[in-house]
Amino acid sequence: MERITLPTLLIGGGPESLIPQKHIAELAGDLPDARHITLEAGHLVHRARSREFLRAVEEFLTPHRPEDRTPS
């Protein structure tokens, strides 16, 4: 994990997802600059909640000044 130094977005699908959400939360805690959000959508978050998914990705990719960022 120490090799991952760039900001990282983790999007979980909630309890209906095939991936245990506690694992996503733990991974987010292990990364130095991670943002973790949950969209209650199951495993195919990008299909089931496409608008919210795209909004989260766009917001994450929008450049911000370093002093505006708050660590998660």
From TrEMBL:
Q: From the UniProt record, which GO molecular function terms apply?
A: hydrolase activity
InterPro entries cross-referenced by the UniProt entry? AB_hydrolase_fold
Which Gene3D superfamilies does the UniProt record give?
alpha/beta hydrolase
What's the superkingdom here?
Answer: Bacteria
Q: Tell me the keywords, alphabetical order.
A: Hydrolase
Q: What is this protein called?
A: Alpha/beta fold hydrolase
